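User: quick one, fold this
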Amino acid sequence: MTLSHCFDTILLLARPAAGKSEIIDFLKKTPPEQRLEKFHIGQMTEFDDFPILWGWFEEDAILEKMGYPRLHSDSDGYFLGNHHWDVLIERLSLEYQKWLRDRSHDGQCHTAIIEFSRGSEHDGYQKAFQHLSPEVASQCAILYVNVSWEESLRKNRRRFNPDRPDSILEHGLEDEKMEFLYREVDWHQVSSPHPEFIEIQGYQVPYVVFENEDDVTTQKGEALESRLNTSLNKLWDLFQKSHR
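Assistant:
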């Protein structure tokens, strides 16, 4: 790999409502030259499994209305099998491969940001990482946004807009689903063997934890900019080290 001035791919991981979407929104609104200089993020392309998941729910509702069996979820909105979580990761990897094929070779830095959450109930990050394509695993770095279960639940309640349940910034889950799916996460288990790298499919993938219990992602402004600058510059140093 030839090192550029920006990340090729960032996995942005966290519990729901931890601040992932707010970080992406902040980066999108940062002028490109400043974003590259301060955060090592180039021209951004986002890959988020929520729109795919929501599309499945809508399709299932249509099928049920037409009198056909639901394909992905039951009438309460729970997946019919945990393999659907793996399909989402495979789908993100497929979309990423299309991006690699089609992205502009314009001499500018391009950064893919792949966003998702995983709970221990559906086999966690350990299982999700097994379904990343080698193209993702070999080129990515991980930014994990860390909040407690209680903070995730609080922010999920706060952001939910029942009139826009399909919105990236305003969707939410019922408390019962949040607890069932995301109260327990396996991030500590997958990251504890090494303080800087996680082994994914034989690749040493660098990671940094962005602490957000004080919710700087909602406050935005200088607090978010400063913490994001510190976190991504540390991650950039680790990324360069892992690709020498």
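User: anything notable?
Assistant: Residues 153 and 178 are 7 Å apart (CA to CA).
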